[in-house]
Amino acid sequence: MPQMFPLNWIILYIYFIIIFLLLIINNFYYVNLLNKTNYTLKTNLIKMPWKW
């Protein structure tokens, strides 16, 4: 039991670090997509309800 407990904690820490890294990478990726390609589409979607 004392040998498995730290191993489980190490696995949990690695798991959370991977999740945080994926979230950060996804956030930068989506921000870059919105700024480069989908910016006009986003503004058009925002302006659409005002036209209706």
Encode the helix/strand succession as letters. HH
Characterize the quaternary organization of these chains. Answer: single chain
The major beta sheet can be summarized as: none
Q: Could you tell me how far the N terminus lies from the C terminus, measured between alpha carbons in angstroms?
A: 65 Å
Task: Identify the overall geometry.
Answer: rod-shaped
pLDDT averaged over residues: 72
Helical content band: over 70%
SS content category: mainly alpha
Low-pLDDT runs of 5+ residues are none
Family: Belongs to the ATPase protein 8 family.
Pfam families: ATP-synt_8
Transmembrane segments: 12-31
GO molecular function, one term: proton transmembrane transporter activity
Name its key features.
ion transport; transmembrane helix; 2 helices; 52 residues; ATP8_metazoa; rod-shaped; 88% helix; mainly alpha; transport
Give your account of this protein's structure.
With 52 residues, this protein is mainly α. The protein is 88% helix and 0% strand. The protein is built from 2 helices and no strands. The chain has helices at residues 4-36, 39-51. The longest helix has 33 residues, at 4-36. The radius of gyration is 21 Å and the shape is rod-shaped. It starts with a helix and ends with a helix.
Short characterization:
The protein is mainly alpha-helical.
Q: What order do the helices and strands come in, and which of them pair?
A:
Layout: H1 4-36, H2 39-51
